């Protein structure tokens, strides 16, 4: 049942308000009149992961409040069932002060009307974002054991409200975009970071990062989270959307560019392209057929599915070696297949690889075909070739042969080389189009390191600041 773009369904029921007052005639439309709201359903007050979600929403209530967003929880429990635990601290097993309204849906009518009633007994873990015109702008429904990411709904509210708050647009993965956002924010450019389809970029699927200055060793996702927090702290706005097209507004007297996403259009006077890169594939028909069924380009994402199994990794650079080492946490054997007689990976990574008894290296071999079954669909082996073909029995294949720039939507918008890398003026991030700048892996085919991407992100922000100043955008 889809309610997005439709009016929210009104109701009047008993509820416990944020101050603990119990009312019998809580009306949704009256409560959130001319306001945004997050309406979330949870199964029962003290089963599954509900208490943790009640606490998580309370912990984020300040973030919602400063955006003018009302938070309202709904369950099929009695309106009184959680009250005895409000005064009990979280560390003592309670839920602490609940800083928002909790609605009783004991008759299950609200859950039924919103299409989230499961087995006619309890509500699924659903969330609806309602705008100030009482229209549903977003909905998501999780299965009972799956908790929510509360920050996601804060970002969605920001994305919806962005129609009235245009700023500099950075359609980017976090790795490059955050560095640009930090410097742009410090220059009072009011930057927007549009996260793209892989929030956090390639580092979110990287395990140990040991070559980023200031960190002897840090997990990729943790580094990205610190960058996100830094960018937000200095004033950058992080938007959960994916840019689909970009155009220059020739006749506009207000903004130069429009970047169109899945959720909104974003208008700006400058754009920093920092959309990173994506994994390359071998190009085999059988590879595409079994993607998601044993063929993957992300060991961090899918490695746990191959516990006590045999897997192959294809490639010879840092990514391939890192993937192979990581997979030994789960697989009983890892076969690294490389088309040459030596690896391109850093020496320290090679040393770790060769010391690992679980890893076998096949030199001077290429993968010709991936074998599998249809029922159930799964990989059963691969055919590799050196001087002659041979079949290997494996349960999974991880492709790690490099990356290609994520620049498809900018084709024809800025000048690129034959490989899709954006061409920039030497020593700068300036592209062929005035007001458009490129940072990170979209323009770097040589170094392709996180610290280099962050550096060019800084350059792009400084170049954008200078451009806007010369263009007299600043007042």
From TrEMBL:
GO MF annotations, alphabetized: peroxiredoxin activity; thioredoxin-disulfide reductase (NADPH) activity
High-level lineage: Eukaryota, Metazoa, Ecdysozoa, Arthropoda, Chelicerata
SUPFAM superfamilies: FAD/NAD(P)-binding domain (SSF51905), Thioredoxin-like (SSF52833)
Pfam families associated with the record: AhpC-TSA (PF00578), Pyr_redox_2 (PF07992)
Entry GO terms, CC: cytoplasm
PROSITE patterns in alphabetical order: PYRIDINE_REDOX_2, THIOREDOXIN_2
UniProt cofactor(s): FAD
CDD domains given in the database record: PRX_Typ2cys (cd03015)
Alphabetized Gene3D superfamilies for the sequence: FAD/NAD(P)-binding domain, Glutaredoxin
One GO biological process term: removal of superoxide radicals
Compartment list: Cytoplasm
Cofactor detail note: Binds 1 FAD per subunit.
Enzyme class, broadest EC rank: oxidoreductase
Name of this protein: Thioredoxin reductase
Superkingdom of the source species: Eukaryota
Residue span, Thioredoxin domain: 2-162
Subunit structure as annotated in this protein's UniProt entry: Homodimer.
Listed EC numbers: 1.8.1.9
Keywords: Cytoplasm, Disulfide bond, FAD, Flavoprotein, NADP, Oxidoreductase, Redox-active center
Substrates-to-products reaction catalysed: [thioredoxin]-dithiol + NADP(+) = [thioredoxin]-disulfide + NADPH + H(+)
């Amino acid at each position: 049942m889809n309610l997005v773009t439709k009016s929210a369904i009104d109701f009047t029921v008993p509820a416990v308000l944020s101050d603990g007052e119990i009312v019998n005639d809580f009306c949704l439309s009256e409560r959130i009149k001319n306001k945004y709201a997050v309406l979330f359903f949870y199964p029962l007050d003290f089963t599954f992961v509900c208490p943790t979600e009640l606490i998580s929403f309370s912990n984020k209530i300040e973030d919602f409040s400063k955006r003018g967003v009302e938070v309202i929880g709904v369950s099929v429990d009695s309106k009184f069932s959680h009250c005895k635990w409000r005064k009990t601290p979280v560390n003592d097993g309670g839920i602490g002060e609940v800083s928002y309204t909790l609605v009783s849906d004991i008759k299950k009518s609200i859950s039924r009307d919103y299409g989230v009633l499961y087995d006619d007994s309890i509500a699924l873990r659903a969330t609806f974002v309602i705008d100030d015109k009482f229209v549903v702008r977003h909905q998501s429904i999780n299965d009972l054991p799956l908790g929510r990411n509360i920050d996601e709904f804060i970002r969605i509210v920001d994305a919806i409200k962005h129609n009235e708050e245009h700023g500099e647009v950075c359609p980017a993965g976090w790795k490059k975009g955050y560095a640009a956002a930090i410097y742009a924010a410090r220059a009072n450019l009011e930057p927007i970071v549009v996260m793209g389809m892989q929030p956090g970029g390639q580092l979110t699927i990287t395990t140990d990062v040991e070559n980023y200055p200031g960190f002897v060793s840090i997990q990729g996702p943790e580094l990205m989270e610190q960058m996100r927090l830094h960018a937000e702290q200095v004033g950058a706005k992080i938007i959960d959307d994916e840019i689909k097209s970009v155009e220059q507004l020739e006749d506009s007297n207000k903004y130069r560019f429009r970047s169109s996403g899945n959720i909104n259009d974003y208008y700006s006077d400058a754009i920093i392209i920092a959309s990173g890169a994506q994994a390359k594939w071998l190009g085999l028909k059988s590879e595409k057929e079994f993607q998601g069924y044993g063929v993957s380009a992300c060991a961090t994402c899918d490695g746990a599915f191959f516990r006590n199994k045999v897997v192959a990794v294809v490639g010879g650079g840092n990514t391939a070696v890192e993937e192979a080492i990581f997979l030994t946490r789960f697989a009983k054997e890892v076969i690294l297949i490389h088309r040459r007689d030596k690896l391109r990976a850093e020496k320290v990574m090679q040393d770790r690889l060769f010391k690992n008894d679980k890893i076998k290296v096949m030199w001077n071999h290429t993968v010709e075909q991936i074998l599998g079954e249809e029922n159930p669909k799964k990989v059963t082996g691969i055919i590799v070739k050196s001087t002659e073909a041979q079949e290997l029995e494996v349960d999974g294949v991880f492709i790690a042969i490099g990356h290609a720039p994520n620049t498809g939507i900018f084709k024809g918008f800025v000048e690129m080389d034959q490989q899709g890398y954006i061409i920039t003026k030497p020593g700068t991030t300036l592209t062929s189009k005035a007001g458009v700048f490129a940072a990170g892996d979209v323009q770097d085919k040589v170094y392709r390191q996180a610290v280099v991407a962050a550096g060019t992100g800084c350059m792009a922000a400084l170049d954008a600041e200078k451009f806007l100043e010369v263009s007299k955008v600043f007042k």
